[in-house]
Design a protein that fits this description.
This protein has one domain: Alpha/Beta hydrolase fold, catalytic domain (Rossmann fold). It contains 10 helices and 7 strands. Helix 3 links the parallel strand 4 and strand 5. Helix 4 packs across helix 5, helix 4 runs antiparallel to helix 7 and helix 5 packs antiparallel against helix 6. The chain is globular and about 45 Å long.
């Protein structure tokens, strides 16, 4: 357990008979949950962590070969759930963290009671009748820009990802988070994130699930959330009033209300 704490900078807070584990998205770390955690820490055990290569994780544990797919991140998440989860475990993931949590739940449904996916996308690329929101040219250009000028990419894309232009401080915070990540690892993780395809796994997820779809999300449009809810066996879709791709930061009260209502029905 000590090695997990070091590897993923695991933190445990709150109290309760059941557990919520939060998995952050690309370019972020566990600090993005700081506004959402207080809604749950008086009633549940709270576990936060950093994916290897992010935040305060052990960067020496990162190798490009090992983390070449989301599967390795899912294995880490499952290890954390099995080591630190008590009672009914709920995995809450954002963006690619939602897909990592989904993969973890699919691997070991007896270890996960509930799954909450915030702004999920199983595949960003358009593929035949499937619409992910991006062409291969779109993704290639995004990745080429990121590779050539990570700081510039962060400044350009943070406002697009965050949305909420009337609150520029949110995009500034996201951009700062991007810039805290090692640029080489960020490039690797971006490739894994934007070129991943988790669609084939969705039908095999055997746990109760909630997909929270944001309004006017440039990264995970509404039709992607609809696809996730249609494809998973037991998935409830809720569309938020919140706009952008990061409602846990821009509208934590609304996100918390939906998660509470979902857990109350379990």
């Amino acid at each position: 357990m000590a090695s997990l704490v070091s590897r993923n900078a695991v933190t445990v807070a709150g109290s309760g008979q059941d557990t919520i584990i939060f998995a952050h998205g690309f370019g972020c770390d566990q600090s993005v949950w700081r506004q959402l955690v207080p809604f749950f820490e008086t009633s549940r055990r709270i576990v936060c962590f950093d994916h290897v290569g992010s935040g305060m994780s052990d960067i020496t544990a990162y190798t490009k070969a090992h983390y070449a797919t989301l599967d390795s991140y899912a294995n880490d998440t499952l290890e954390i759930a099995q080591a630190f989860g008590v009672g009914a475990v709920t995995l809450v993931g954002h963006s690619v963290g939602a897909m990592i949590a989904m993969l973890a739940a699919a691997k070991a449904p007896t270890s996960v009671a509930n799954l909450v996916m915030i702004a999920p996308s199983p595949c960003y690329l358009n593929d035949g009748d499937y619409r992910g929101g991006f062409s291969r040219t779109d993704i290639d250009q995004l990745l080429e820009y990121l590779e050539a000028n990570y700081v510039g990419w962060s400044a350009t894309y943070a406002p697009v990802i965050m949305g909420n232009p009337e609150r520029p401080e949110l995009a500034a915070e996201l951009g700062q988070s991007f810039c805290r990540m090692d640029p080489e690892i960020a490039k690797d993780f971006a490739q894994v994130t934007f070129l991943s395809d988790c669609r084939a796994v969705l039908p095999s997820v055997g746990v109760r699930s909630l997909a929270l779809q944001c309004s006017n999300d440039a990264i995970a449009p509404a039709f992607v959330g609809d696809y996730v809810a249609r494809t998973m066996p037991d998935c409830r879709l809720e569309t938020l009033r919140a706009t952008g791709h990061c409602p846990h930061q821009s509208a934590p009260d609304e996100v918390a209300a939906h998660i509470r209502a979902f857990l109350a029905r379990s």
